[in-house]
C-alpha cells in the first residue's frame, strides 16, 4: 500500500493529519472512520478548479449518498459545492446542516409525496425526473402546493461502461432514468414543456459508478448533447443545463488505474462547451457533474483492532477485527477489494497472508480475502485505506453493532464529526412488550 494524502510513518506507526493511529484509537476507540481533511479539501478543490470553462456556470454537485453527515455538508458548503439528495432523510440532513436549498438537486426513482412536499417547502433548486410516473407525480404535488419547479430529465444513452454490474446504470432496462430511444420520451418532453407547473431546464445522465476510463464520459456527453439538440430543434426546448452525473473511478486495490482527474476535468468542461456550441445549444448556462466516491473515498480510512487469529483446517488463516460488514458491506455486496496494513507496525516485514474477517454472523463477512501482513497479534491496529465512500453511509446495526465514530484530522488536530453509536442509541426506538391482562 502507498501512503497517500498526509499519511506518514513515524517510529513504525502510521500518522494521518499529523496524529498517530494509537492516539486516535485511545481517544475514540475502534472501529474508527478517519478522514484526512487536508486530502479531502485538496480533492474538492481539484474538482472545483479544473471543472471550469469560461462563459458557463460549472457546478460540482456532491453525491451525498457516498458519505453524509452534518460536518461533511458544512465542509462541502464552505467550498462552494452543490449537493444531491435522494430521500427525505438525506434532504433533512442537508437542510438541517445549513446548505442553501437552491444548491440541492433532488433525485429519486420513487419520490414520495411527503418527500416532494418537504422539498417544496424548503425551496429545493432542481428536481431530477426519473420517469413518466415520477414527472406526473411531481407535477401534481407541485400544483397542489401552488409552486413552479425546475426540472432536469434523467436520460439513458445506453452506454455500457465497464464497471461492476450492480453499479452500472444506463442500460436500456435500467432501474434509473429513461432510455433516449424509448418511444415515449418525446411525448413526455412535450408534456413537460406545455406544463405551466414546471420549467424543464435540461437533462441529467449518470452512466454508472467506478468507471475507470475517461472515454466513456466523453461518449456520454456527446450523446446527451445530440439528444438535447434534437429536442431543442423539434420542440423549441431551451436547454439551460446539462448534468452529466458522477461515477469517476477510484483506486481501491492493486490493478485499479483511475484517470488523472485534473486534466480529465478541464478537458471535459471544454469539450462539453465546444460540443454544445457546435450543436447550437445557445441557451446553455450551466454544466454540472456529480462526483461521490471520487471526492471522499481516498481520504477515508477505517481503523480496526485485531482480536483472535484463527487457523482453519483449510484456506488462509483468519485475523478477526472488531468491525466488519456492519461498517463496510462492500466486500460482501460487490466483492469489493481493498488493501490493509498493520498501522502500529508499518515497517515490519510482511510474513503472512491472512483473510481479514469481521465479527458478524455471516460467512460472507470477510473484509479482505488475502492480505499480506506482518505476523499479526491481538491488539494490533489494522487500517483499511480508501474506505471513505459507501462504507459509513451503508452501515447497519446488524448483530446490534454500533456504528463507528467518524473523526476528521488535519495539522495535528482531530475533530469528532460523528459520535460512536452506543448500545442505548440502538435501543432508542424500542418499546416494551406488554402482556395482555
Ligand atoms: C451514485 C450517484 C452518483 C455518484 O456516483 P459516484 O460513483 O459515487 O461518483 C452521481 N449521480 C447519481 C445520480 C448517482 O446515483
From TrEMBL:
One family from Pfam that matches here is: Orn_Arg_deC_N
Residues at which pyridoxal 5'-phosphate binds: 247, 290-293, 390
**Residues at the active site:** 361 (proton donor)
Q: What is this protein called?
A: Diaminopimelate decarboxylase
Q: Name one GO biological process term.
A: lysine biosynthetic process via diaminopimelate
Source species: Aerococcus sanguinicola
Subunit structure, as described in the record: Homodimer.
User: Which residues are recorded as binding substrate?
Assistant: 293, 330, 334, 362, 390
- Please list the GO terms describing molecular function: diaminopimelate decarboxylase activity; pyridoxal phosphate binding
Q: Where is the Orn/DAP/Arg decarboxylase 2 N-terminal domain?
A: 40-295
HAMAP family the UniProt entry points to: LysA
State the function annotated in the UniProt record: Specifically catalyzes the decarboxylation of meso-diaminopimelate (meso-DAP) to L-lysine.
List the transmembrane segments.
none
Amino acid at each position: 500500500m502507498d501512503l497517500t494524502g498526509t499519511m506518514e510513518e513515524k517510529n513504525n506507526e502510521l500518522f494521518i493529519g499529523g496524529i498517530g493511529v494509537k492516539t486516535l484509537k485511545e481517544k475514540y476507540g475502534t472501529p474508527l472512520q478517519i478522514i484526512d481533511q487536508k486530502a479531502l479539501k485538496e480533492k474538492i478543490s481539484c474538482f472545483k478548479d479544473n471543472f471550469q470553462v469560461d462563459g458557463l456556470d460549472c457546478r460540482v454537485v456532491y453525491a451525498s449518498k457516498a458519505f453524509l453527515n452534518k460536518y461533511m455538508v458544512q465542509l462541502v458548503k464552505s467550498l462552494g459545492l452543490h449537493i444531491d439528495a435522494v430521500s427525505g432523510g438525506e434532504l433533512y440532513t442537508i437542510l438541517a446542516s445549513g446548505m442553501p436549498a437552491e444548491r440541492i438537486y433532488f433525485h429519486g426513482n420513487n419520490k414520495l409525496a411527503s418527500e416532494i412536499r418537504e422539498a417544496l417547502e424548503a425551496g429545493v433548486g432542481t428536481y431530477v425526473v426519473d420517469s413518466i410516473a415520477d414527472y406526473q407525480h411531481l407535477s401534481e404535488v407541485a400544483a397542489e402546493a401552488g409552486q413552479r419547479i425546475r426540472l432536469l430529465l434523467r436520460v439513458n444513452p445506453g452506454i455500457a461502461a465497464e464497471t461492476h454490474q450492480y453499479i452500472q446504470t444506463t442500460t436500456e432496462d435500467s432501474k434509473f432514468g429513461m432510455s433516449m430511444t424509448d418511444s415515449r420520451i418525446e411525448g413526455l418532453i412535450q408534456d413537460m414543456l406545455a406544463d405551466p407547473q414546471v420549467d424543464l431546464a435540461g437533462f441529467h445522465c449518470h452512466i454508472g459508478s467506478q468507471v475507470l476510463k475517461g472515454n466513456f464520459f466523453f461518449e456520454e456527453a456527446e450523446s446527451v448533447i445530440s439528444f438535447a439538440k434534437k429536442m431543442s430543434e423539434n420542440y423549441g426546448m431551451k436547454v439551460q443545463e446539462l448534468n452529466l452525473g458522477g461515477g469517476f473511478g477510484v483506486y481501491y486495490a492493486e490493478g485499479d488505474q483511475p484517470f488523472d482527474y485534473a486534466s480529465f476535468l478541464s478537458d471535459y468542461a471544454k469539450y462539453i462547451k465546444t460540443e454544445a456550441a457546435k450543436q447550437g445549444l445557445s441557451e446553455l448556462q450551466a454544466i454540472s457533474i456529480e462526483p461521490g466516491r471520487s471526492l471522499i473515498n481516498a481520504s477515508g480510512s477505517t481503523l480496526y483492532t485485531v482480536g483472535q487469529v484463527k487457523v482453519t483446517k483449510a484456506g488462509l488463516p483468519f485475523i478477526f477485527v472488531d468491525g466488519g460488514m456492519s461498517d463496510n458491506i462492500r466486500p460482501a455486496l460487490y466483492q469489493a477489494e481493498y488493501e490493509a496494513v498493520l498501522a502500529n507496525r508499518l515497517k515490519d516485514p510482511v510474513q503472512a497472508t491472512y483473510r481479514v474477517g469481521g465479527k458478524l454472523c455471516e460467512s460472507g463477512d470477510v473484509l479482505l480475502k488475502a492480505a499480506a501482513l506482518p505476523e499479526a497479534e491481538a491488539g494490533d491496529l489494522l487500517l483499511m485505506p480508501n474506505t471513505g465512500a459507501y462504507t459509513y453511509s451503508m452501515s447497519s446495526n446488524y448483530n446490534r453493532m454500533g456504528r463507528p465514530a467518524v473523526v476528521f484530522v488535519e495539522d495535528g488536530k482531530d475533530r469528532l464529526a460523528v459520535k460512536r453509536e452506543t448500545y442505548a442509541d440502538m435501543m432508542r426506538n424500542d418499546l416494551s412488550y406488554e402482556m395482555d391482562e
